[in-house]
Amino acid sequence: MVLNFLVLAFMLVAPQITWGFSFADTQSRIELYKQQAKDKKLAHSSQWLRLGHYRSSTFGGYHSPIQGNFFIAPHGNKDPEAELDATLQLLFTAKKAQCRYLARTSWLKKELSIYPEDLQSCPERDSWKELLGAKEIYLIFAASDLSSAASSFGHTFLRLHNPKNTGKLELLDYGVNYAAVTGEESGALYAIKGLFGSYPGTFSMQPYHQKIREYTNLEGRDLWEYRLHLTPDEVTFIIDHLLELEGSWAPYYFSDDNCSAQILELIEVAKPDIDLTSQFHDFVIPLDTVKALESKWMLDSEKVRPSLQAEWHTRYANLNFDQRKAVVEIIKDKSVAEPHYLSLNPKQKAESIEASLSYLALTEYREQKEKKDEKYQLALARSKLGKVTEPIVIPPPPSPLTSPDTTAVYWGYGKDLGQDFYSFKWRRGFHDLLSDDSGLAPFSQLDFFSAEVRYMPTRQNWDLYQFTFLNIITTYPWTEFERPLSWKVDVGTQPKLAPYFNGGIGAGVDVALPKAARATMFVITENDHLLEVANPHFGVEGLLVNKWTEHFRTMLDAKYLYSTSEGRSFGDYSAGLSYSEFKTEIRFEGEIRDNHDQWKLSIIF
Questions:
Q1: C-alpha–C-alpha distance, residues 111 and 193, integer Å
Q2: DSSP characters for 76-124?
Q3: Angle of the 321-333 helix axis to the 346-367 helix axis, nearest 10
Q4: How many Cβ atoms are within 10 Å of 168's Cβ, its own excluded?
């Protein structure tokens, strides 16, 4: 790759040198090509607009976010005609220019009657692409991770697949990623700059096994792989365009011009007649882009690559009480000469060692510290037991394609202090504790830019009841080995546009109820009416979410709060239940807060 970049740099700075019988002959042919392009209106064809990443401007015309050395004409990012003219001029007057703009050249060769003597060979490029050997492209979706702001909505990138790399050799394929170049910045500055496009976004390529290490091993995120419906020629065209984009960048916006938006535009370059991007406006959520590709019949297959964390959790969940105690002792004392382990039969011993090895592999990545000695001793003990276990089967998580839509509309009826009201709520994204979380982070909530208005017949008007800027709840279970922090934050406005900020931290545990359930305790603070007077409440909260079936779930929540301004304590108790099927949900919610009661029945689409 280093050699590849050096070759590119040379081509970018190489002087324009003419060849052929004479400059006059060459220029006359170029003018002929330009005229052919005008006659066919190529500058406004979907293919040329895709190649330039042009978008329609609000007041007419075009603009492209691509910056750097991508455009040839001085105002090529706004003028596709001028850029096409400049491209034709450069391609046939500068040596290696056609190797710099492979995709443009390939397309123009099909559209124009180009003389053979005007075509260049690109042996360096051809050799590199032959070595890459990519004939297929896979879309990779990394599951959402609410512990990181940048990963909250998931992530998409591409895998360039060489058919020779079968089975485990797929790890030798290359991944193509689009990401913001953020340096070492994090926290509030990172979020603000990402929202306003202050970071450059660039494409990069690295071995696929490194991407797996990053997502499945370090971050504990499952990877979903989808083969894209592309011909080998279309795959080559995408690779050629990626090479054109080297040395270029675009402002990276977390909300819209993000990884998934650019991946869709890249696919549109090879499929110019398929519209993938126009349906996205204010937000481009990676999960939605996977569904958009599926709706256009662009996905041929689906395969999940479980994370190391999923493997560890599966192995540990399959153990009985004595085996779990044995694993705790093995990890703690780094030895199999422990009472609980010695009391097990050979099969149980093998399962305990395999679970311990899985945990060591997980912590080895997370701590960035090799544990060769511990792993060697356990592997040696395991080898002495022989073949007494079967390969582990990790239950696949629900497919992202089956997840509910991120945008939802709520229609409801309820009573507030005995007064009837009708409710309409619009949620931009993503899901809440009562929603179907198939393909999403379980027992979590991510709600942003949602608004609820209510109509009360006694007042005969609609009022804004609540606007939610951001509401996140993440719950993680504590185990003998992990003590992850659960946390929550809620920012928005209440009636009469009174801003509020609520937050809390706590710990969760998976509960042994008939079905999957998680209980979480929080230490919380609630701050209402921030612009009027400081009135913080402090207290504790208990939350229980239960998934009774695939479609039915319940939620119980109890808070005990102390008001610092009023010098008194009060309770806040709420409950909810939901039934969802066929992308529709029926929900009942009720709350009693400091003697103020309300309930609501909603249908959600």
A1: 42
A2: TTT-HHHHHHHHHHHHTTSTTHHHHSHHHHHHHHHHS---GGG----HH
A3: 50
A4: 8
Domain count, the chain: 4
As a whole number, mean pLDDT of residues 416-423 equals: 95
- The first and second tokens of residue 282, run together, are 């204010």
Work out the mean pLDDT of the chain and round it to a whole number: 90
Mark whether 201 and 271 lie in a shared domain: yes
Q: Are 197 and 252 in contact (CB under 8 A)?
A: yes
Asked if 586 contacts 579 with a C-beta cutoff of 8 angstroms, the reply is yes
Same domain, 197 and 221: yes
Residue 21 has pLDDT above 50, yes or no: no
Hey, what's the torsion of the CAs at 150, 62, 234, 141, to 10 degrees? 10
Residue 436 lies in a domain: yes
Beta strands 461-474 and 444-456 are antiparallel
Render pLDDT for 353-401 as a digit per residue (tens, 0 to 9).
Answer: 999 999 999 988 888 888 888 899 999 999 999 999 999 999 888 888 9
Task: List b or e across 2-33, with b for residues whose CB sees 16 or more CB atoms inside 10 angstroms.
Answer: eeeeebbeebeeeeeeeeeeeeeebeebbeeb
**Span 129-187, pLDDT tens digits:** 999 999 999 999 998 877 666 677 889 999 999 999 998 899 999 999 999 998 877 76
The answer on 317 and 300 residing in a single domain is: no
Q: Are residues 344 and 273 in the same domain?
A: no
Residues 147 and 255 in one domain: yes
Of 282, 305, 328, the one marking the end of a domain is 305
Q: Do 518 and 501 meet the contact criterion of CB atoms below 8 Å apart?
A: no
Residue 391 lies in a domain: no
292, 318: one domain: no
pLDDT surpasses 50 at 4: no
User: Per the domain annotation, does 19 fall within a domain?
Assistant: no
Q: What pLDDT is stored for residue 5 in this prediction?
A: 38
Is 60 exceeded by the pLDDT of residue 38?
yes
If we measure between CA atoms, which residue out of 364, 309, 367, 355 comes closest to residue 328?
A: 355
Give the residue-averaged pLDDT of 25-29: 88
Is 17 a domain residue? no
On the question of pLDDT at 8 being above 50, the answer is no
Radius of gyration of the chain from its Cα atoms, rounded to whole angstroms: 29
Q: What is the pTM of this model?
A: 0.88
Tokens of 470: 């951001």
Q: For residue 313, what are the contacts with CB-CB under 8 A and spacing of at least 6? A: none
For the segment 505-523, the average pLDDT, to the nearest whole number, is: 90
Sort strands 55-56 and 408-416 into parallel, antiparallel or unpaired. Answer: unpaired
What confidence score (pLDDT) does residue 2 get? 36
The contacts of residue 361 (CB under 8 Å, 6+ apart) are 217, 308, 312, 375
- Give residue 486's domain range: 403-604
Tokens of 461: 């008007």
pLDDT at 533: 62
Identify whether residues 254 and 361 lie together within a single domain. Answer: no
Express the helix, strand and coil content of the chain in percent, nearest 5 each: 35, 30, 35
Q: Are residues 418 and 556 in the same domain?
A: yes
pLDDT at 295: 93
Q: Which residues contact 114 (CB under 8 A, 6 or more apart)?
A: 33, 108
The domain that holds 142 is classified in CATH as: 3.90.1720
